Amino acid sequence: MKTVVEILSRKHRDVIGVTPSTTVLDALKLMSDNNIGSLLVIESGEYRGLMTERDYARKVILAGKASVDTKVGDIMSTDLPKIAPETSVEVCMQLMSSRNIRYLPVFEEGKLHGIVSVNDVIKAVIDHQAETISHLHSYIHS
């Protein structure tokens, strides 16, 4: 099965981040403008966490806070498991399922390398299945 590095090589998208002091409203605008569901939180060039739509829904809306007054650093997720580029898609699926999360930060030699979403993982599985079906189809007809 595929690995995270293969997923990242196909994404063709720069990782977008904000600082912990960014307002949630500004972060949401950035997410909307880029049609993404999460933002990396970076401070002084270092990864600090991830802000997701789920963080917003649960920690701002349901808590009765205002997006304009709340900072990303107050709601970001900081306890996500970190994966390596060599991590298999199966391990990603297991982590996402067992932890009920949708995003995994990818680190290589201690440096942030990218982010993998549940949609990326699903697409990798579908692509792998299509490839297997194609190989089996070719084998049967040869």
Report on this structure.
The protein has a single domain, classed as CBS-domain (Roll), CATH 3.10.580. It is elongated, with a radius of gyration of 17 Å. The protein has six helices and five strands; from the N terminus they run αβαββαααββα. Helix 5 packs across helix 6. The chain has 142 residues and is of the alpha+beta class. The model has no long low-confidence stretch (mean pLDDT 92).
Defining key terms:
three-stranded mixed sheet, 5 strands, 6 helices, elongated, CBS-domain, alpha+beta, 20% strand, two-stranded antiparallel sheet, single chain, 142 residues
**Element string (H = helix, E = strand):** HEHEEHHHEEH
What's the CATH architecture? Answer: Roll
- Helix/sheet category: alpha+beta
CATH topology: CBS-domain
